[in-house]
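A further point concerns the way the authors explain their paired sequence and structure data. Since the whole study asks how a given chain folds, the encoding of that fold should be made plain. A single example would do more here than another paragraph of explanation. An entry of this sort, consisting of the sequence and the corresponding backbone structure tokens, reads as follows:

_____
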Amino acid sequence: MRHAVPLLAGGALWWFLYTVNRPFWDTVVFDTAGLDPSSRRGEAVHFFFYDVTKITLLLTGMIFLITVLRSFMSVERTRSLLGGRREGAGNIAAAGLGVVTPFCSCSAVPVFIGFVAAGVPLGVTLSFLIASPMVNEVAIVLLFGLFGWGITTLYIVSGLTIAVVAGMILGRLHLEHWVEPFVFETRLRGKPVDPSLSLSWNERLQMGREEVVTILRKVGPYLIVGIAVGAVIHGWAPQEWFAAHASGLLGVPLAVVVGVPLYSNAAGVIPLVEVLYDKGVPMGTLLAFMMSVVALSLPEMILLRRVLRPKLIATYVGIVASGILATGLMFDLVL
């Protein structure tokens, strides 16, 4: 029980910091520094500091919690339990979890790292990584308010299908050797340790702290660079040019090519989708654009690079982009 007090205190502190993150940077950037919240500069500066803090907190909380939990169970045991006995069951569960966790693509990365480290099969974790930013309750509510249940249902079904199928394909390819080895290691005092051994609570908590420091050291530079890139391009899109060219057979491929470098969550991109829809851009093209923006962002790829090797990132992007492309083309044909 003596370990419960510091754990509860640490959890309360983490929750407090996570809750006050946005209002704190609102005050610092807009009130103290005097930057205009409606200007590109003000928005970019606020976005950078807010997102770096948010994702650092997510990394710290998720890695510590999962490391302590996996100290009670071996990676092999976790993989057998969470992999799903029937093919695709784990992917469906992971995609469903992604729907109720409204993260942007970069915010989903800490959870992804924790799942991989805990021994959850790679294909299953990738289903979560796709579904979490692509399909969430905020986007569902906004889409329903703007376009009704028909378009909203298409968005939900297509997003979940892409997440599940892409995860199953990537899982069947057995690409774990393209994950950086340190993700799978459990260390105590700098040395590898078998989590199935009997450990004291002090050792388990120390493992959690050491793992947080290790991951932050390895991922930190990529986090800074990725969010800096995201801050520069956040919310940017050539509306008039895109509206003029996003029609015909090339409209959907163009939507994917334009959408991937951008960085926003679903709630942030839906108002732009409404504007483009009013300008006559087909709905299938808009769905492809929205999905590519929220599920495949350049900052996310930069952050993932520290834990995944380039070949796996390229394979992941290729499979997901192909699913988005097929979805957009199909909906443009039937709508």
Summary: The chain is about 75% helix and 0% strand. The two ends are 60 Å apart (CA to CA).
